[in-house]
Amino acid sequence: MALRSAEEYKQGLRDDRAVYILGKKVADVTADPYLTVGVETAAYDFHLAHDEEKRDLAVMKDAESGEDVSSYFEVPDYPEAVAKRHELIKAACYHTDGALPFVKDVGTDIINGLSAVARGMGNDTYRDRIENYRKYCARNDLSMSGAVTDVKGDRSKGPSEQDSPDYYLRIVDETDDEIVVSGAKAHITASAYTDEIIVIPTRAMTEADADYAVAFAIPAATKGITQICRPSFRAEDSYHFPTPRPKRGHIEALVIFDEVRVPKDRVFLLREWRAAQYVAYAFSAFHRFTAVTYKIPILEYLTGLGMLAADANGVSKASNVRDRFVSMINYTETTKALARAALSEPQNFGESGLYVANCLTSNIAKLHFASNFHEFVRNVQDIAGGLLVTQPTYQDWQHDELQPYLKRYMGGAGDFDAEARLKLMSTMHHVFASDFAGWHEVCTIHAEGSFATQNMMLLAEAPAEMYKSKAREIVGLSA
Amino acid sequence: MALRSAEEYKQGLRDDRAVYILGKKVADVTADPYLTVGVETAAYDFHLAHDEEKRDLAVMKDAESGEDVSSYFEVPDYPEAVAKRHELIKAACYHTDGALPFVKDVGTDIINGLSAVARGMGNDTYRDRIENYRKYCARNDLSMSGAVTDVKGDRSKGPSEQDSPDYYLRIVDETDDEIVVSGAKAHITASAYTDEIIVIPTRAMTEADADYAVAFAIPAATKGITQICRPSFRAEDSYHFPTPRPKRGHIEALVIFDEVRVPKDRVFLLREWRAAQYVAYAFSAFHRFTAVTYKIPILEYLTGLGMLAADANGVSKASNVRDRFVSMINYTETTKALARAALSEPQNFGESGLYVANCLTSNIAKLHFASNFHEFVRNVQDIAGGLLVTQPTYQDWQHDELQPYLKRYMGGAGDFDAEARLKLMSTMHHVFASDFAGWHEVCTIHAEGSFATQNMMLLAEAPAEMYKSKAREIVGLSA
Amino acid sequence: MALRSAEEYKQGLRDDRAVYILGKKVADVTADPYLTVGVETAAYDFHLAHDEEKRDLAVMKDAESGEDVSSYFEVPDYPEAVAKRHELIKAACYHTDGALPFVKDVGTDIINGLSAVARGMGNDTYRDRIENYRKYCARNDLSMSGAVTDVKGDRSKGPSEQDSPDYYLRIVDETDDEIVVSGAKAHITASAYTDEIIVIPTRAMTEADADYAVAFAIPAATKGITQICRPSFRAEDSYHFPTPRPKRGHIEALVIFDEVRVPKDRVFLLREWRAAQYVAYAFSAFHRFTAVTYKIPILEYLTGLGMLAADANGVSKASNVRDRFVSMINYTETTKALARAALSEPQNFGESGLYVANCLTSNIAKLHFASNFHEFVRNVQDIAGGLLVTQPTYQDWQHDELQPYLKRYMGGAGDFDAEARLKLMSTMHHVFASDFAGWHEVCTIHAEGSFATQNMMLLAEAPAEMYKSKAREIVGLSA
Amino acid sequence: MALRSAEEYKQGLRDDRAVYILGKKVADVTADPYLTVGVETAAYDFHLAHDEEKRDLAVMKDAESGEDVSSYFEVPDYPEAVAKRHELIKAACYHTDGALPFVKDVGTDIINGLSAVARGMGNDTYRDRIENYRKYCARNDLSMSGAVTDVKGDRSKGPSEQDSPDYYLRIVDETDDEIVVSGAKAHITASAYTDEIIVIPTRAMTEADADYAVAFAIPAATKGITQICRPSFRAEDSYHFPTPRPKRGHIEALVIFDEVRVPKDRVFLLREWRAAQYVAYAFSAFHRFTAVTYKIPILEYLTGLGMLAADANGVSKASNVRDRFVSMINYTETTKALARAALSEPQNFGESGLYVANCLTSNIAKLHFASNFHEFVRNVQDIAGGLLVTQPTYQDWQHDELQPYLKRYMGGAGDFDAEARLKLMSTMHHVFASDFAGWHEVCTIHAEGSFATQNMMLLAEAPAEMYKSKAREIVGLSA
Fold first, then answer.
1. Beta-sheet pairing, B24-25 with B59-61
2. Do residues C338 and C86 make contact, with C-beta atoms less than 8 angstroms apart?
3. How far apart are CA B444 and CA B367, in angstroms?
4. What's the pTM value of the predicted model, to 2 decimals?
5. Could you report the predicted ipTM of this complex, rounded to two decimals?
6. Which subunits have 3 or more CB–CB pairs within 8 Å of chain C?
7. Which of D267, D135, D281, D288 is CA-nearest to residue D214?
């Protein structure tokens, strides 16, 4: 099968999937006013392969069949694959104004993680299954989402210790050919508009948790799967000035599995509870660098908005504003530099033969952008001023009696007349002070792992023994 | 006239005022779905005087007429007045869940500021006018807003240096009895639903700016005034779970003055450009402590939400979460302690005989809460988790097929069943991750003066010479 | 006995005490070049009572005998006692350039703590003993130090769990009239030059730790006590320019108790292990506010030095330097405001009838100054420039051939000629970049409890249930 | 001439140089107790070329003569030269326990900077002079220091605006073959023990400052040069336990030029005032990355010390201590990652054909380590505890009666007996709480440019227009 067009991708989503949003069932996810934003954002992963300029980056030959497939599906079994993937994802994000198309990257990050674990476990069955699944997705040019985080109930307790057995997804039945699973995965980005959902465990498990140690892939339209979506922005929004580019963004779902049947050749972990944590870790090792990558275009853009606000307000030369610029630029460029550093030392993940960006540095990059984003927002809000939240709306602008007043009073400095300034402030409200801005703040913290997880991993990955042994040597303490 | 009831206050707003919101003219501000939230919040300033428990705090005798008037109108000509007003405002805020009723405090803060300046200038005319205006408002039990911030155009330039003369409000004509003013004031809280608007300059001026040096009071329904309002939250919102208390909040307006005629007995500054900055400073000296005061109830409430989220998620005993608690509590309690410190040393403002809370300490308190709020938000978002923005909505909860799933999967720890947890997350979304949250972040920075202004004032108010003279003495340098 | 003079205090120190410094036994602590600095600093606690201006603050009548005694010994059984003591300590510190005389405050803080605990326990024997001891010290006008922190060995283990029984001070024998104790207390300030040492436990204990649960007072010259002192500055120092005031500072000791016999009427806790933690907590409740108090003069002085450095360098008007000023002043004045707030709400400690400054606010004040001091130092070092550490020394200044060069090249801005600038930099080196500066940084963190302890106490003292119950009410959750 | 041995280097320093320390003239800098520490540290730049393992890194062939010369002198006219130099400097620093040998790197950084400027100016005379000087130093295997910072007087004024003409080094006379210069350069590291001193301007200049726009090289022993040195540590120090490695460190001098004659073929800038700032900037572009490089070994070592202190105290598993580890490691590894990022994108400096590490990223790396070092120190001091400054000294340890006490009481956790723990604390006092620690804090801020300079350069180097143009495009504003 050839590389699909964006239209073919959309056509593929018009199936029996059970998707709800705001209390209503969605008949066609490509037509819902919220979900269509996500669908169009995702579609660029399909546009990309048909874009002449990006083709070299986006398309490769399937090693066996020789057919054209998406480069996302490449097996990263050589160090340079890391930089190549970085460029691919960055190109996709630049196109979508920072909003990662998402429907091929997270899925292949999970495939890579599962493959690395299977290789690490020496489990050829799982390795073959996951590599066959990779080929299947590549050759059918499918979109995929990743369902990792369980609903978790009381987070101080493990899966089998909860008051209810339902707080982590689990195997409720098994036949020779199939397993049956129930449970719910939370915060699942884009699953409402991907062909496939890949499910993996979210944490370390004990022997008592064996039924919870399960990984598999399943079409999103499978019977028993119900998705409850939550918008991250307002579709009905008429406050904001229209922009030349379509609105970009994604929609998360709570994905409920109610006795869903999974064929065993799509099962990649089955009660091997000792491996559960390693699967989660491997996924995050691959996916964290994807996150670091997609931050670059968005931070450049957000920094630019902040600087334009200063121009519009006539304060770009004020010393306090220049201090804000320094802080904003430092934040953005440090993120970029840490990404470059991470890819300058690719790492053979767990000696699996698959390469990831340097884990410690990727982790530091993620901690950097997650820890300092709120300060960045504060800086921009400080520069933009109260107009960020008190600006007249696009409806006011369209009103015959009000527009003359707005033209008279809303002008700014330099080339910012009232309309330009209100347009700028309108976009900045969306990005820095709206529901969407809140969603962005929370994602920056929680997507790809919380602070607590990052800190734990940083301690695990850092060369602590090397530091200490140097210090022992200099002080004169026996090793 | 007796103390008005909330109903009488609302009745008084049904006049000819020209108020627009989202591109439409509002016939009755007490009936508009957005503005009514502000009106009801403001109404508590009227409820208060009729609340038996708060009466001692809220009502005083008019010194001349002996009639009952609101305590907000007290002349603060003795040190203890500061603490009394602090208790009054705090009580009002506790009632409105932290959202300051606002329509008597800011107005009397301006009246106090103008009175202090007139006393400082030795200008008996202005002093009599402002004190008469105070009595007028008190005896008619009026609500007032304050219009301070001009639209400003290019902020690197003064009023008379702008490309357009319209970027600061100015006197465009004058007769024996009246002045005529044009201009626009931005970010004016609650003016759409106050009886009166008091206008003062926002900055220092030069001789060339004399026409811009003007202060006065005017009924909101005066001909020539057009208000363009901007919601700070979504009225149409059906995402959120209903709460037992009404929604609270305020609405800002761009207030346009188009050749508005002002009788001279309501003019408190008329081209005395040298005094313009002092008026702005005096107002902020009085108002800043109001801001410090109203932060206390809201921060206690927000801290509580964050701690409940930890309970709901079962993470209250995790060491990383306890670190977040320490940071959140430290933020909240430092704000409270700085408020106590500011009132423990009331200050005779500019030797005017009117007392304010200690200016330097109030300033420090404001800087404290404004500088650290985004980190506080980050901490709460970190504790609350992704559910803060991916939670199923109230519409989902009401859906027959979805509710059983939500009950099964959305339960948390302890006594947080699915409904309690979703209710909590619903309120938390509103407060920490919505348009309203963005508005709150921006207000925390910009209301009552930006960082740059606060820093400048801190330098001006601090006892720098005392520090240096001590240091000189100890080092042994001549003074 | 009358209030002693400073000379009488010094005379009293010339006894058999076993004090070592830098590997040598000290014959007379008032004559050792290091210890004499501490002795002279401490002596101001005796000067104070003879200073006509301070007498009202420093002297009170003994309730029973009517004789004049030091106000330090007042029983704080009324709320205003807190503010009075604050003023007393502040006056002492202003005199000693910020270096707290120390030899009456810490001792009476412990006496107050032990008295509050005895009252809380309802233990009249201990209460009488400690109050008698208070009178004894008052009437003999003694100086006292407090020995709290044990050497601790492996801090992850309790006293009885250590590899060695010696890591916490313990009772090794007991007779009808005496106990015998062995152990070592670390970081004991001023004990080398106080008449008395008061010993209390440093942490919570278990039943197995009963022998370690002991509190008592003992003369410093008692047989079996050996003190190993460590200078916090260089006595031999000829780098620095002479200053008009004597050098101030204190010396810590490791105080070793080797089978020291203690009469039982000086024992205030004897194996009541459950009370051990409460004694430590009570002491810190009283002492923490002493620390907050003595920080005020020192921070004002340090801020002044930083501002003078800017004057000397001609950079006081540079925007980046003014930002540093804002940060420095904010740090200093926030500390002062938190002190005022703490004393504006004195607290009846554990319902003992003895008053302390508000515990939560004192704790916040301590956390504030300890958390931000290094940033303050960084700011001053940034302003002062490299000369802080590369400045020519006083020896260079005294050299005939070098002085002309220094005069020619070392001049600064304004009235800072070369000599004034070098004098300033000389003091600043001592305070911001020397052994003493390192000692000061470490003390700021660790004196009066580490960050970990403060954080734990903040969580314990904060009104967390109040926050949560407000939030529950507003959200609509049952309490 | 062959590559010199360390001994030959030292022999070369025994000349007529006028060096003073602590008010005394030094007869032989290799014999002075302070300066010898610097000399031995510097000597490793000579050891290096004779170390078989490092030879490939340290030695290259002179392109013309074919003789072996130090790799420091390489002309960096190809991108990979940057990484090579990074490895060379890192190797040197690892050997000297983090204390950069210094006497070849800073000099060649200046040579590279001057060469790049000459190339940029198209000034072949200067280019030839500086390249000839490079060859001269290489073939004679000389050591060099760089004299950049003038004493500056009132820093708000330029060279010619000062009250005294002496506050910046200047040309006081000129003949056909020579110039004569007077002035003083401050904070000059290692100049007391280098063969050569290279002098460049420190700032932008105006036409009036032409006499101050001068760059040249001169032997340190030249008539008219007087150096007043200041120790950064205590040579007489017997507090500290001996360590297996020699003490490392450098000594700064105030270098006074009193009518010093400089032959014109050693003059690289002569009144071209427009180029003065570019020379300073070019030097810092080359040298800043040297600084970033040498931080790596020292930060690894300091991090190790902090972690060992936790081991010694038995607190390595405490959650608050692990948080400190996270912060310390993050600081260290971010510095390392930024260094890697900077070298992954070498930059053709000002199109001169000479390569430097990426300027923006190097600048960010420098800002990173300078901004966060004090927090790092605070973290280590927090972990280490009060013993950092109250530890018994090596003299106490050597005392027969005290050692048994110390052995009994000073033991820590794990394998840290009393001696190991005291040794560790002794080194940590030197590094984290002594005169040397103060010197280190100040150098971290001020060496290679202050915060203000770094911020200014960050703004200049960042791709601000790219950010803004992206934002314009997305918002829909014309470019």
1. unpaired
2. no
3. 10
4. 0.97
5. 0.97
6. A, B, D
7. D267
